[in-house]
Structures are given as structure tokens and as C-alpha cells.
Design goal:
This protein has 283 residues and is an alpha+beta fold. The chain has two domains: 8-140, GTP Cyclohydrolase I, domain 2 (2-Layer Sandwich); 148-269, GTP cyclohydrolase I, C-terminal domain/NADPH-dependent 7-cyano-7-deazaguanine reductase, N-terminal domain (GTP Cyclohydrolase I, domain 2, 2-Layer Sandwich). It is built from five helices and ten strands. It has an eight-stranded mixed beta sheet with strand order 5-3-2-10-9-8-7-6. The protein has a two-stranded antiparallel sheet with strand order 1-4. A hairpin with a 6-residue loop joins strand 7 (177-190) and strand 8. It is elongated, with a radius of gyration of 19 Å.
Amino acid sequence: MTNYENAKALEGLTLGKSTDYASEYNPNLLQGVPRSLNREQINLSGQSLPFYGEDVWYGYELSWLNSKGKPVVAVAEFRVPATSENIVESKSFKLYLNSFNQSRFATREDVIERLIKDLSEIAKAPVKVTLFDVDNCPALNIKHLEAICIDECDIAVDDYQFDDTLLDDIHITQAPIVEEVLVSHLLKSNCLITNQPDWASVYISYQGKQVNRQALLAYLISFRQHNEFHEQCVERIFCDLQKYGQFDKLSVYARYTRRGGLDINPFRSTENITAPNARTLRQ
């Protein structure tokens, strides 16, 4: 149970409530959630963040009408900076994108301009938007990151409540300094409001003392009954790993499975770089 689940900022969300789908463009459907709700709990505040990062969203069900009423479809990429005041609440995002379905726009550029304006206003930071043809989109290509999968570690698990102290043994005995990328496909958390499951593959790239992979896997599995938004889970993982591991370099990238035509992929790093372009079959 996190201490912000009943925060007033969450009371007006459409998430978890019965709603009608609008088919005419309506930017008022968008809702934001303050990032501060989770960051205060993990001792982050203001702009003095210990990481760079972005939330990379892909929208697979974007459609609108051209000036003659003919439907147009596209795959959309949205990049929201981790420094934005708000995250974009996912259900409101789906409802908003659905409102384009029966709306006419003269050009593709008009759609992009409208998306940038509306999303930047709700996030309170510049949001980047790119539209791709459905048969020519990097997000649709299966491109794996070169990583060592830790899911075959033979560990016993009898508690599925979040526990950061599982990282007490994050380093192996007399750990050498290494640089490697690890991945687990076993990350599961639950939506903060609806309790619906969220599934992800999480990539952890680091430079520093070698990680005890059993301890890391046990920690990631402890999210299994944890309720938190995607972005908040990734920031928690990043902060916990840095707290216990004291790495020279660290990046955490979670590729979540899509729901309602959207997938959310938070990326946090000690390096000022963009999120890699990669996905698995589940995305």
C-alpha cells in the first residue's frame, strides 16, 4: 500500500470508472497525474533528479478522417520527458486518441500539431510526437536488446509483497567491476486504481560491482502484487538499485505490454540518452 493511493489528485480521474467513448476530437478528455505523488515517497523532489529519462508511448489505434472524409491510420510515438510535471493518465489518453476517429483534419501535420499541443499542455512539458505508416514503423519491428536473461535463476519465492531489502545482497562476494545488460520478463505490477495487471520486460544496464542475479530477480518478483503506475515502478527500481548498488552507470528500461492500443515504456538513466528502440513478442 503506497501512501498516495488516496491522494486528492487522483479523485477526478476517469480511470476505474464507466465512461462513454467520444468519436469527435476533444482535448478535454486528457488528464494528468502529478509525478510528485510518487517521487516524494522515494525522496525525489523538484528538478534535482538523479536520472535522465523519458516515457515512450506507442499508440497502435490512431485514426482520423481526411478533408474528404476518408479514414487515415497511423502508429504514433509519444516521448514525454521525465522532468514533466505530470504523467499522462493512460485511460484518458486512450479516450482522447479515440476522439480523433470521426474528426476531419486537412493534413497529417495538423494531427501532429494538435497532439503536441494537447499533450504538452497536460504534461506541462514539451512532448515529442511522431506518426508512422503502419507498415513502416520501427516500433513494430522485433528488435531485441543484447541482454542476459536472469529468469532461469533457481530461486524459491514465497512472498509477493514489495520488498526493497531483498537488494541487501545485491553484490556477489568480492564482486568484480563489470559492465553488462540484464533482462527479466517476470516483472508484473498492478494498476494503482483498477488493480489490473501490468506486464513488462525490464532491462537493467549497469557499470559497477557485479550484481547478484538471484537477489535482483527476487526483488523484481516482489512487485507482483504491488500497486503503482508504470512510470512510478521504473523510478522506484532505478532509485532502489542505485541506493543498494551504488553503480557508476545505470539505466532501467521497462517495455510494458499494450492495453487498449497503447504501451508505455519508461526509461531512466544516469546518462543523458534516449530510450533504445527494442521490443519483444509480447509488445
